[in-house]
Each structure stands twice: as structure tokens, then as C-alpha cells.
Amino acid sequence: MGRDKYPRQSLGALHSQIKQARVLLIGAGGIGCELLKNLVLTGFGEIHIIDLDTIDLSNLNRQFLFRQEHIKKPKALVAKEVASKFNPSCTLTAHHANIKDTQLFPLSFFRSFTLVFNALDNLDARRHVNKMCLAADVPLIESGTTGFNGQVQVIKKGKTACYDCTEKEVPKTYPVCTIRSTPSQPIHCIVWAKSYLLPELFGVGEDEETSDQLDTSEDADNAEEIRNLKAEAQALKKIRESMGNDDFAKQVFNKVFRDDIDRLRGMEDMWKSRTRPTSLNYEALQSEASSSTDATISPSDQNTWTLLENFAIFKSSLHALSMRLKQNAGIAIAATEATNPAAVRPVITFDKDDPDTLDFVTSASNLRSHIFSIPLQSKFTVKQMAGNIIPAIATTNAMTAGLCVMQAFKVLRGDYFRAKMLFLENSGARALNSEPPRPPNPECAVCGIATGQVDVDPERATLNDLVDGVLKSELGYGEEMTIMNEVGPIYDPDMEDMLPKTFRELGLRDETFLTVIDDDEENPRVNLQLAVSSKRKLPAGSRPVVLAPTTAAMEDGRPEEAGQQRGTLEIARKPKKATSDRPEEMVEGNGVTVVIANGAANGTGTGKGKGKVKRSADEAGLDGADTLKRKLAADDDGTGSGAAGDASVVTNDSTKSNGDVDGDALGFDRAQAIMLDDAAAGDGSIVIDDD
Amino acid sequence: MTATATTPPLIQAPTAKEKKYDRQLRLWAASGQQALEDSHVLLVIASNGDDGSGSSVAGVETLKNLVLPSIGNFTIADSAKVTEADLGINFFLRSQSLGQSRAEECKQLLEELNPDVQGHAITTPLSDLLKDPSRLRPYNLIILCAPLPQEQRRIICEYAQQYSVCLIHIQSAGFYSSFSIQLPSVFPIVDTHPDPDSIQDLRLLSPWPELLAEVKALDDLDKLEDHDHGHVPYALILLYYLEKWKQNNEGKAPDTFKDKTQFRDMVRAAARTDNAEGGEENFDEAAAAVLKTVAPFSIKSGCREMFEKDSCKVINEDSASFWIIAAAIKTFYETHGVLPLPGSLPDMKAKSADYIKLQNIYKSKARKDVAEVSQSVRSMEKKFSRKDVIPDGEIEAFCKNAAHVKVLEGSLLPQLRIEKGDIQTRKTMLNELQNTETLLPILLAFENGSRSQLDDMIANNGKIDFEALNNQFAEVDRVGGRELHNISSVTGGMVAQEAIKIITRQYVPVNNTCIFDGIGGTTLVLKL
């Protein structure tokens, strides 16, 4: 008897399996803290924790493993330290690193785990882990939360849908330091312009918390940087006072595009693995500025403006907004209905349909992108990239993490069929929805592919050794094929000059991936993803590119035989294009009549069928498809039945009702809505969330 | 261009606290946060010796999820000492806790989570504490960790019912858990957070004079310039064609689905297509909105039920503010056949100035409606010489949410009703047991006493799936009250979420029982 008395009793035979399991937890934030606590107290034998971030004051109110004294310390290390006290028999290892670093975390690293848990906060890393786990054939438990909603999904190669089997929406909130200090994508600069610069100059001016996309409560690199950023904002506020002066644009420009950037440049730690930004100078640009006016630039929204064009638009939109703010001051006071006079202050907020704010955000974000060597975007694209802040609470994280562990039990038993896709939802009617795991999407670009590994000698191996020696002669590929590396195509029949290049020359080092696309017109193979490995020494004189044996064979393999070992690959053909866009059963399966093993959850405990219809509908809504809910609400109101839209009493069973013309017709509409919805958002998608 | 106000909503700068709790304030706003910070939650854990962990982990995990978002105070009443098995499943204990008071140790570690929260521990045996039930007075939410001795549970539940204190009864063992909520007999919620899209209420079939005047001002749509024609807000387009429709249909608005489809076609046909886009966005919006907005006003069940309550019909000097406003809104409804107008206008394609004008027409009407309700509230206050004046903001919020207000009716904890042999509760359960996928046996298995009580009823019922029933019974027996951390953690999340809804009086809490099966990954919500 002792510590593990209770789990042993509940888990029975599974308990010893859990003790022997070696699991990887990626992310030590909101869900990660909860998961680590659960894993330790469930008795998992060996846990590795990876997190890139350090602890910030703002994490403490829900990332409960961290305390005041841990601020600035790496999350992974502190989480390990704190959690290890709670189960001395559990081995914990922490990595303060980026999971996307393939040198630190190559395929073999992933292969060494029984199970991987994703507790991440961004799409990029999720996709990467999904890909690695598929390639390593290690089961992955993926999770995410937004506000009251949470999702858990089990991903296992060939058995369930993978993370990328359904299309994902772009994440919508960003850690403040990513936005203010270390942008790496166009969206980061757009959010900066929209949610920081615009509000600072024309908004309430207090700080970015009032904005939609900036998440100041998360992931700050450290408190010091936050302080610096606060000082920056203060300085900008000073400049704001000179709005209307002739040199206002110059002051703003030199502040945010020169001085602030120069300060960032000096932060050595920040640029170890990132490209250092280069500041811009107002005077220099002004002297180069051409005579082209913004009147001709602004309407060309499909083209990406040049640096100078962006500079021109930045000045003109800043001017237009300044003038408007001055004008509005009088109107706002007259028109306001606010009872609090202190609140009266004219502001301009971002509106994608307000040309001045859009021009301002487009030009300012592009100038910043230029500084950080990020691709510039057209006004058209900038307009598309808008969103809302995502709330995060402890309760949802707790539920989600607990459910992840439950799924882990099933995975350890190999019981994938009984693993569930789980959806948490805030409603009086039910707390949790579940459905069976979905099968892999045969057209998925990530898991609907064949995977293999080539062992190469990078010095000797040429692309031709791969194309002729392996793909054509061993795997039976024809002439028509395209080979891509992680950036773009490196070979197709029109790029013959590439064939003699060696792997080294092509930058195809150990732990990179190649994708072979079969361009055969008749019956093409699915895409083949090849992991390039140079770990195995190929004997001199042997062929420099060989297909590696399967994982299992390789693990059993003895090094001395390695040179002779050669794998084979079965590569399936691409599925024929479906005749209709969406097969009938899909509508049912995802929308209306699917049986969700969830009991009668409509508050009365009797109207089962009805509950299911409503539940499926809401579930689809959870997946980011507000259009559906809107549509349902619309239909409900349209029937005039009076009780529609009531959360806990499901009275509208119109998909099944007969004899009522309205009901039938609307029922049809409803099914359509669900279907469209599925097609658009792809349910099962785990969107951005608390890390 | 889609119009929005040139004068955006005026936002006040956030305070430090607003920043700290920013992410949750977006879910329950400052009023909800204040309610949380004013609350004092009592967690009661029985001392079960070696007989399982007594759902203590589920209880403590619940507290964790309430301390993080900052409830004001919590108290743990638990006379047990920490055992080694406790250390293996309870995160809020450490090795040094062994042999110490479980209440004290958990309290201390929970307090560390948030310096804004005050924790307290009561270590005297529950039976002593309950000798004077008035000691339960400081708490506005009581959470019981089952199993508790029957008599003690009864005293606490009856006390809570008598003083309208909310209570949650949790049980967690092995892969199963359940919680039941005992709400006061009347639990009104104004801020139910309906789907934002369902709040839109354009009143196209019951327009008021100012709105009609705006339609009249359009004169003849066909004579408008192309640019103007393409920027008439869709609400006005619909009102305009509704008038036309009525002229051709004996003054009646489209009623049946067929009518509405025809009306939609009529609107669609009126769009100008001889332009580059081959149509007009505002007319597309209008056509798309027909089914949703061309409908007579109807009042939702929650509101109707509220009007039918005696507390709403009979107002006296003891009536709560809620019921005084409800009665005033009822009077409004009886006078006008509609509820006060919420006053918000959805986004629509229009010229900014036109949109703002229309927005103001809706806003003014909403204000007028609030004024009318306020007037009848004030006259009731006067009539019953009430000392406390109901704040304007409360009346305004009620009017805005009137269509979605809900009054839940709580009753004594179902477990207690089973114990007392309540016929209606038994009937409900018997019905539920006939559902093949029911999880109710889990709850019954948790309630040792009720098992034998139900035996004879169940035995004579051919519709019940005994195998499933027995399996769930057997699983509960097998684990013998031992908690599994992750199941208790999920449960603690669910219970805390409901606790937050109850404390903030926002969103609609589970009424009254939720059963969780970790193996199946399913929940069952029942009104027992």
C-alpha cells in the first residue's frame, strides 16, 4: 500500500502499463500545467516536458504550477521542479527549447515515446508535431481550449484523422512579445499596426488590452521586456500630443520604425535564432520618395505596395486620421449618451471597411514587415486578416487536460476505436459531447500520403541517385513527378540540370523532408514524404541513396548489416475524385442523424432524439462556424414557434417533423447549413487557445 | 461600404485588476467578477478513514478552479488527517503533509495560488459543527464531497434550502463521477448570455411611427440613383416591400412559408442587376434576412414561464427587485404585445449617415421602452414604500435581456429526495432507467441506500437493461470510493464552471444533475 493505492485500484492492469510508459508533453502553459499534474498523479513513469517560454507575471492566475518567485524562469524547468515533488517515483525531464528544432528533436526522439501530448498554443507547432508523430508513428493526443470550449482528439497514423485532415482557421490572438518585439509572420505586423499602433495613436490610448488580437496576458518573454514595451508606449503617447503638427508623421515614424527598432536590435538574446531587424529612416525615405501619389496607390489593393508606396500611404493615412480625430472631438461630445463625462473622448478604432484605417494598418504593417524581413502583403490580404481575442479560464483547461489523460488510457490499450473526439461546451443542456474518432481523410495532404526514409551519403548522393536509382527503378515511378523540399520544388522533368547536384549542394541535410508528387495523369500515387537521414554510414562503393527499412526493422537492425539493409514501400494510388462534392452519408454522419453516445442531455432526460439533433447542430457550431448558429436561430425565429433558441428545452425537431410546411422546409435548410458548415470550417478542428 | 458609427463606443481605460483577469472578464464582465470576489465558498469533506478518498480530490480541484479566477473566500471543513494514499492523488498536499490536518494543508497550498483569496480551515468533526447549523451562515455556496453521513447531509441541504443558499453535491470514484446542484426554489437569471445572433430583434412586423416615417421618406425606391439604391439599409428595404406586399394582400404580412418565399423573391427581383457586380449587396442581405426577420413577435418560453409565476403576478413589499422589474415588463408586454426593444441593430450595408440614423431610431425606441418600464417600477416602489431604489442600470439590463431571461426552479437535492422516498423522483428515475444509454445507475450506485430502495421497482420492470445497470454498479463497487486524479480533475473543472455560473448569476447552470462516465467520455444531464 502507499501512494499509488488509489490509482492502482481504479486502473487495475493498466496501472503497470502507465508506470512503464514514456510520454512527451509539449507545452507547459494552461493545459500543460494541468496535464502534468494529472500525469504525475496518475503514475506515469517517465515524462518529458518541452516548452520554449519563460514565466510571466500574467501566467500566474491560471498556470498554477508557477509562483511569483519563478518569474523569468523557463516554464519547462519550473514545471518539472514543482511537479516532481508530487510523485517521487516518476522521472521528469525538462527541455527549455523549441519543439520545431529538428536537430534537438529529430524523428528518433519522437519514436522513443509511447505517447505524445500536445498542449500548444499555436497552429504552426501543432502541425509540426502532428507531422512528426505521423512520421514516427507515435500516437498523439491533441487538445485545445477557447473560453468555455475545449476539444480533445486522438491522432494515430492510419487509424484516425490527423490534425490536418480538416482545414484549420488561422489563429487569432498573439502573445504580446511576438507582436511587439519578435514578429515573424505578416499577421504579427498586422496585429501590431491594428491593435497597438492605431489604438495608441487614435484609440483610448491606455494600452493594447482594449484591442482584439493582442494577448498581453500570455507568453511574455520576460517581465523586463514588458517594462520596456510599456516605456515605449509611454513615449509614443507623448508624441500623440503633437498630433496636427507638421512633423507629426515624422515623429511617429522615427519613433516606431527607427528608435524602437534600434532598441530591439540591441537585445542580443532575442536574435540568436531570429533575423535581426533593420530600422528605417524617415529622412532617407523622404528624399527617395517618388512623385507617385497615394491617390493612385491606395485603390490598387491587389498589388503589394513597394516600400516607398507604403511610406507614402503611411503619411497620408496618418494625416487623414489625425484630421478626423480633431474633427470628431466636437461631434463626439455632442453625440455621446454616456453618463460618465470622463469617458468622453473621441477615438478611431479599426474598421476594415474604413479606408483610412485600413490604409494605415496596411502601410504601417508593411513597413514593419520590411524591417523584420517578413514578406509584405497587399491591402486586400491585410483586410482579410482580422479577428477577436480569445478568453481563457481555468475550468476549461482542467476539464480538457483530464479528458486527455482518459484518452491516453485508451491509447495505451491500443483501443483506438473507443477513443473519442471530445468537445466541451458551455450550456445548461450538457457539459461534454463526444463522437467516435474520425477516419483519416484520404485526401489529407499530411496523413493521406505515404511516408518513408532514405538513408543517404550526402557527399556522394545526387538527386539522380534518388530519382533514377530509387523512385524510378525501385518504386516504379514514371517520368512525370515533382520533388519538393520544405521551400518549394527542386525537381521536375523540366529541371534536369538539378539531377547531378549532390544532397549536400541541395541543402538536404539530415532530418529534412522531401515530398515526391506523382504527376502521372492516369493513376497517380499519393504523395510520398521521404525523411532524409545521414545517420547510417553507407559503405563506400555502395549505392549512396537507399530506401531505409521500416521503423520496426530498423530498430531490430544490427549496424554491421545496415549497409545491406534496404526497405520497400507500398505506395497507394490517389483516390478517384468523388462524383459529388459531398457524399450523402457524410451529411448524416457529421450533421443530423449521427448517434452521439451521450445520453439524453436536453434537460428533461426524455426527448432523446430531439436532443441529438440540437446537439449535433451545436457541436458543429463549436467548430468555429457561427454561420450555422446564426442560420439556426434564423430558422427558429422564422417558424414563429415561440420556444426556439431556448438553451435547455429543445422543442424544435424540425429535421424530423412532418405535416408542417415550414418545419420541413426549414429542416432541409438546417441540414444544408450543417453540411456547408462542415465543408467550410471542418469540424474537429482545434483552434487557437490557451497554451 | 458597411457602415459603422463614426463615433465608436467609448471605452474606459482598464484598471490593473481588469488587466489581470482580462481573459475571464470577457466571459463574465466586471459584474460577474465582483460577484466572485464577494463570495465565500464552503467545501465539506467527510472523514472516511480507509474507506476511499471521499471525493476530496474533486472538491479540492473545484476550489483550485475557483481560487484562480479569484473568489473572495473559501473554507474547507474536513476533520481528516492526511494519509499516504491522499498524497498519491491530491495535488494540494505534499510529503510533509502526512499526518497533518487535510483541511489545513489543502487550504495553505490553495491559498498560494492567488494572494487575492483568503482561505480558512475547519478541523472540528462535522457532527460538532452541525450542532449549530447557523455556523453555515457565512457561505453563499456550499460544496459537499460525497459520501457524507446521511444525517449530516440532510442537515446541510435543508439548511441551504431554508436560506436559499446554493449547494453542489459531488461524488467521484474510479472512472465515474457525478454532481447535483440544489438551487433555491426560485433562481432567476437575467444575463443568460444568449447567442449574440439570437438577440437581434428588428420588429419589422410591428414597426413604430418613427421607423415607418423613415420608410416613407424613401418615397419610391425605383426612382433612386444607383448608388443610393445600392445603399438602402436592408431593414428599410424589407419594411418598404412589406408595405407593398400588404397593399396586395389585404393588409396582411407574409405569414406562411410559401408567402415568405414569395416575398423573398419579390425583394430579390427588386435588386438592380445592370451593374458590374450583377446585383446589390444590400438586396442580397435583405433577401437573406426574410425568413429570420419577417415574423410576428413571439415571446420565448423562459419569459412566458416567468410571467406565470406567482411572484411575478403578486408584488408586495417583500418582493425582490427582480420580480418588481419582471412585473413591470409583464405589464409592458400586456399593453403592447411585445417586450421592450433591445435596441441593437445588426451590421448592414448602408451609407454611414443612414446607418447611424437608423441605429438611433432603434436606440431611441429602446430608451423609450426602458423609460416606460422604469415608470411602472417606480410606481410599484412607491406603492409598497420600498426603501431601496432599484438602480436604473438593473432595469435597463433586464429590458435588454428580457427575451432571454430565465427563472430556474430548484428543489431539495435529488439524492435526499430519493432517500425520503419521493414518488415523483422515483418515477423520473424509472423512466430514465429505460433509456439504453443512461448513466443513471452510476448515481444510484454512488447512493448506497437508494440501491436497495429501487430494487423492487427495477425488478418488476421489463424495459430496463439489467446488464448495463449491473455493470455500472459493479464498477462502482470495484473501485470502492477511490478517486482517480484525472477524473476528479475533470469533475473539479465541471463543478467550478457551474459554481461560477451560480455565483455570477450569468449563463444557465445545470439543473440539477450531471453524471460523467470517463470510460465512454460522455455526460448525462438530468433534471431529477
Automatic annotation (TrEMBL), chain A:
Keyword Nucleotide-binding: yes
Location of the region described as Disordered in the Swiss-Prot/TrEMBL record: 633-662
GO biological process, one term: protein sumoylation
A GO-annotated cellular component: SUMO activating enzyme complex
Domain Ubiquitin/SUMO-activating enzyme ubiquitin-like, residue spans: 455-534
Active site: 177
Pathway listed: Protein modification; protein sumoylation
Domain Ubiquitin-activating enzyme SCCH: residue ranges: 346-383
Domain THIF-type NAD/FAD binding fold span(s) in chain numbering: 16-445
Record keyword ATP-binding present: yes
GO MF annotation list: ATP binding; metal ion binding; SUMO activating enzyme activity
Keywords assigned: ATP-binding, Metal-binding, Nucleotide-binding, Ubl conjugation pathway, Zinc
Similarity comment text for this entry: Belongs to the ubiquitin-activating E1 family.
Alphabetical list of PANTHER family matching this protein: SUMO-ACTIVATING ENZYME SUBUNIT 2, UBIQUITIN-ACTIVATING ENZYME E1
Protein name: Ubiquitin-activating enzyme E1-like
Record organism: Endocarpon pusillum (strain Z07020 / HMAS-L-300199)
UniProtKB/TrEMBL annotation, chain B:
GO molecular function: NEDD8 activating enzyme activity
UniProt keyword annotations, A-Z: Ubl conjugation pathway
GO biological process, one term: protein neddylation
Annotated protein name in UniProt: NEDD8-activating enzyme E1 regulatory subunit
SUPFAM superfamilies: Activating enzymes of the ubiquitin-like proteins
Species whose genome carries this gene: Endocarpon pusillum (strain Z07020 / HMAS-L-300199) (Lichen-forming fungus)
Stretches assigned to the THIF-type NAD/FAD binding fold domain: 21-517
Pathway field: Protein modification; protein neddylation
Keyword presence, Ligase: no
PANTHER family the record matches: NEDD8-ACTIVATING ENZYME E1 REGULATORY SUBUNIT, UBIQUITIN-ACTIVATING ENZYME E1
